[in-house]
Design a protein that fits this description.
Chain lengths: ~375, ~375
DNA sequence: ATGTGGGCAAACAGCCGACAA
DNA sequence: TTGTCGGCTGTTTGCCCACAT
């Protein structure tokens, strides 16, 4: 949490700056009012784990599925006005929408797309005008007012592997809506999360947290393999060059280059020797305050080839076992590695019944899963 | 909190079931989206206090100001439809609105009223039709859609002491909107409030809580004098008859009669010997589940004349000193009683700059203050 | 006394191509 | 290629009263 050090917030001296946890359960939610997405995770701190745990986490990291095709458009004043419909970029319409029957005059069809709540929205898709262009007309204004969209917000159309259309929104970064809470002070909240984690760590009992990537983009749950790789794979030094990924406006990614300018504790009083954002960095291209000036080791890719100062403890085999086969084998592996998980080992999204694996980048996984929520 | 006993929630054995606190600060809020009202309080546990503290708390209890005139109407289908305006009950219009000039044909005027966010709403008030009636026409539908009102919700018009019109809404009890939180689990929240209180109690440091009377009507902050009076003034016994106040639909109050049927702990495991709802009661008139079957001693008025089993410890003088004069004298008294408060002793509402005193019934105080938020 | 509905005029929603960036 | 606009038409909004409860 971004929180000024406050004398009134208790310390938890027995709470380390990081906890190794099992991911027991993850549930994806979308706020019914705003479509804001967030994840609910049940974590259980563990004190011991087998090397299979690491391998499985790494395995899951590599499970990136082929991205579905999609397009994302930022809405114009015309798109959101009541005067007309939605102007579909030509390439987008041709890539995502079903092909039109051009023998019709004008070519037109009905399009249906499903949102995160499984609501189906129906639009008239027509190709007309001079010059010709793709438009969504009837049904569009209902969508705009229903989702309370304004110019600057974005819509995302996705075509999944079954040719189903999925529909999402991404609101512009307006002033923080500040609805944070009418029942809980941020102090209590801060204390509560720490107290819950401390209690769970002391008892190896599960606790539940929420992750909202739009409200606070910081990932505070790191895949185990990703963390290990960063810690044991990267030799850090002042002046080292690195790259780091950022998400672009249109849901793509872009790498920016930077230099490590300092290695020191973010909060030497409360979280001494924490690896959380202990790297001070400068960026090659940056307007003031555009990018964070502190990052964590697992967020960056060193540009110089990494070398090992000591053998990484969990890579007993030179080449970690590669598994490209079916999930049943992964299930068996998981069960051997963490038998206390029982049958809860397969994490099911209650909406989609998709089986997923712990260890993915959470944002990556959420994106994937959101896009498949109609399956 | 209404919370099932959960093995994963830590106990706070050093946290007593009640804390004597100083009220450092109280801020009233209204949710910008929903107009839901709530209070934010900073409390500081104290271990000792002078008798002046009790006297001041009692004094504040007696500070009930004369209620401003108001009316409250539950909206009909016609009131909320786009087909027309708002039909003002005759008596309400004559009591609250400025008098019309009946020489006009038809009599009409512009009315302005201010909501909790200091937004001003303008309506055309006209007296017409056959038979004649008071109507709000132009401007009304903007208000209905702006506040997202539906048939069954209520509007409240208040005329304050400066003849200014204030305007509030009170939504019907629909299904709980369940927007509770997208960033915090209820477990963490529960733990957090307890942890914050426990830490504050151990260190005599302040902590902050929120009180939302619509979401959870239970008052969990009790004026000190009210509590003392109840504990030392009422001799309880099984079968004792009592009265208790409830708020009616139209913002009035009504007393219901009941009988004490049991005296025992609500939660003997976690909060042993707590006085919180330790009275089991039955009601003279009650549909099933209409009224709570557990109440606390400070909520009821015994019907039999109270008698003292021992002299109440803080009423050294037979007749507590009565102060009807200016707040400067109260300030001095407070400063002598609780010098550690420093200059924070005068609680100011940042909106109204009204000086208020600790010890009032919170709901009472909120009602008073909300009605003055335009001053 | 006041909730609902028909009549009516004005405002708005929403589909179209023209035009320009 | 696509954002915005004027033209046009069908629907909705919103003020009035009548009528019923």
């Amino acid at each position: 949490m971004q929180k000024d050090v406050d004398a009134h917030v208790p310390n938890y001296p027995n709470l380390p700056s990081k906890l190794i946890c099992l991911l027991h359960n993850i549930t994806l939610h979308a706020d019914l009012e705003t479509d804001e997405v967030y994840a609910q995770m049940t974590l259980q701190p563990v004190t011991s784990y087998g090397k299979e745990a690491l391998q499985l986490s790494e395995l899951a990291l590599k499970q990136a599925r082929p991205q579905n095709e999609f397009f994302c458009k930022t809405l114009t004043a015309s798109d959101t006005s009541t005067h007309g419909g939605f102007s579909v970029p030509r390439r987008a319409a041709e890539k995502i929408f079903p092909p039109l029957d051009f023998s019709m005059q004008p070519p037109a069809q009905e399009i249906q797309a499903r949102d995160l709540h499984d609501n189906v929205w129906t639009f008239r898709h027509i190709y007309r005008g001079q010059p010709k262009r793709h438009l969504l007309t009837t049904g569009w204004s209902l969508f705009v007012s229903g989702k309370r969209l304004f110019a600057g917000d974005s819509v995302i159309f996705v075509r999944d592997e079954r040719q189903q259309l999925l529909l999402g929104i991404r609101r512009a970064n307006r002033q923080p809506t500040n609805i944070s809470s009418s029942v809980l002070s941020s102090d209590s909240m801060h204390i509560g999360i720490l107290a819950a984690a401390a209690h769970a760590a002391a008892n190896n009992s599960p606790f539940t947290i929420f992750y909202n990537p739009r409200a606070s983009p910081t990932e505070f749950v790191i895949p185990f393999a990703k963390y290990q790789k960063a810690v044991y794979g990267n030799q850090l030094s002042l002046g080292m060059r690195f790259r780091m990924m950022f998400e672009t406006e249109e849901l793509g990614t872009r790498r920016y280059m930077g230099t490590i300018t300092g290695i020191n504790d973010l909060d030497p009083v409360r979280w001494k020797n924490s690896q959380w954002r202990n790297l001070q960095v400068g960026w090659d291209e940056s307007a003031a305050g555009e990018r964070r000036n502190r990052v964590s080791i697992w967020e960056i890719e060193p540009v110089a080839a990494p070398f090992f100062i000591c053998p990484p403890p969990f890579f007993g085999a030179k080449r970690p076992r590669q598994l490209d086969d079916e999930s049943s084998e992964m299930e068996n592996l998981l069960k051997r590695a963490m038998p206390w998980l029982g049958e809860e080992i397969c994490i099911k999204d209650p909406q989609t019944q998709n089986t997923i694996m712990p260890g993915l980048s959470l944002v990556q996984w959420m994106n994937m899963n959101m896009q498949q929520s109609s399956s």
